[in-house]
Amino acid sequence: MWKIRKLSWMMSINKALGCDPCFMLEKEWLMKLLIDSETPLNTRLSAKYKRSFAYLSMKDRAPLALTKVIDYLVRDKRGIEKTYGPGAIEEVKCAIGELSQLKNHLQTSKPFENFISKDPDTTTWNQHLEARELHNEVNNYYESDWLFAECYLYRRIRESFATKKLICSIDPFSVQKTQVLDSALDIMEPMFCYLYQSKLMDKQTVLPKDDLVNECVRLLKWCLWANKIDLSFKPDLQEGGNIADAFLKIDQWDNKIVIDNSEKVGLCCIEPGYKKVVDIVMDNAGLEMLCDMTLADFLISKCGVDLVNFHVKPIPWFVSDVIIRDFMQGVESIAKSERKHFKNIGLRWQHYLDKGVWKLHADTYWCLGLPYQLMEETDPSLYKKLSRSSLIIFKGDLNYRKLVRDINWEPSTPFEKVLDCFRPAPLVTLRTLKAATVCGMNEQKAEELDENDPNWWTSGNYALIQYCPDV
């Protein structure tokens, strides 16, 4: 019986690695679904367009993310058993089989299936799948719109654990995120020293208005360029000292910011107000998360902000996205570090959490495959919560894609027009470009970039700070 189980398990792994004998036939069938073109203008991004970045992402990047999850489970199964109990190893084997099948379904564009777990979003996801069928939307990995397909994939990864009894709370990306956090601590050390030397953490020191705006802009750019380091996109975080040096001279990257409304955002942040609230819709754990916390501290200490709401993901998501556990691990790591200034900053951040000056939220909507234009209808309580904000800061590429409905806009299309009905409060999006959608750009600038660097849309080497005031 043990040999049969082992053989079955190895067959699952072989299928995950693309060794299934039926795989090549299924892949030939997939190629017939594809359209040999780029994504047409004013069309939702989709992997069905063979010359698009969405196609390359679903063909290469998404299967790699699944392979890493499977590798983690195979490699660490004994450690998982030690943590979660004697029966956990059987659940791990089951999850490996399901993830292997998921990888095959992804690579051969099988139809989406309903979810069966008891997670709180299961009914919502199934309703959305049903609604898409009623509206004749194609529900498979390549012909569907890319936004929904990618989100469905990561929710399906979650399903492989949510349906288990012992290992249901596993974050399959936690090891990768912890490694990135450890590297980020080295990078933050000179940055924290700068904050103390400049007295930016001192509530008693009053800065002139111009200096206040300039320092706010600096921190916004830290948060912006930290977004470049994304485990699902750029998995290597090396040469920590060099990155730290670059962040201290952050203005050297200004020529890579294709839309820069940072001064408007800085002025918005320091504007006097009663019960000022800032909402940060977070993206990546590690360095970006720590930069977001640093900005939040500055907003409390220097800009008269009374409350910062951090919006994190309710489930492990897109490999590197912040969940509550990552956030608390970050604060704890800072507080326990022996590095200069770290302990004081970590304890200060914990105090903010204890006093309710910082609050964590993990709403389901952030992990649905919907654009934000549907938020007011689908989750009115979240929309109402955001509408109380003085400024909403959206971090990263996926949030941007949801803001702009993941459409291949003409780059000069006004940002306000693209946002359409989603205008809960003044908002800014900080994003390094990793998907082929952008709006609100100078037309000539876009043409120059197309000519000089055709991959500027997706390389992660260009960025934007795009602001929209309240209506």
TrEMBL record:
It catalyses: beta-D-fructose 1-phosphate + H2O = D-fructose + phosphate; beta-D-fructose 6-phosphate = dihydroxyacetone + D-glyceraldehyde 3-phosphate; L-glutamyl-[protein] + S-adenosyl-L-methionine = [protein]-L-glutamate 5-O-methyl ester + S-adenosyl-L-homocysteine. Transmembrane segments: none annotated. Its EC number is 2.1.1.-, 3.1.3.-. Its cofactor is Mn(2+); Ni(2+). One of its GO terms (cellular component) is nucleus. InterPro entries: ARMT-1-like_metal-bd_sf (IPR036075), ARMT1 (IPR039763), ARMT1-like_metal-bd (IPR002791). One of its GO terms (biological process) is DNA damage response. Keywords: Hydrolase, Manganese, Metal-binding, Methyltransferase, Nickel, S-adenosyl-L-methionine, Transferase. Residues 58-447 form the Damage-control phosphatase ARMT1-like metal-binding domain. It comes from the Eukaryota. SUPFAM superfamilies: AF1104-like. One of its GO terms (molecular function) is metal ion binding. Pfam families: ARMT1-like_dom (PF01937). Belongs to the damage-control phosphatase family. Sugar phosphate phosphatase III subfamily. Subfamily III proteins have a conserved RTxK motif about 40-50 residues from the C-terminus; the threonine may be replaced by serine or cysteine. Metal-dependent phosphatase that shows phosphatase activity against several substrates, including fructose-1-phosphate and fructose-6-phosphate. Its preference for fructose-1-phosphate, a strong glycating agent that causes DNA damage rather than a canonical yeast metabolite, suggests a damage-control function in hexose phosphate metabolism. Has also been shown to have O-methyltransferase activity that methylates glutamate residues of target proteins to form gamma-glutamyl methyl ester residues. Possibly methylates PCNA, suggesting it is involved in the DNA damage response. This is Sugar phosphate phosphatase.
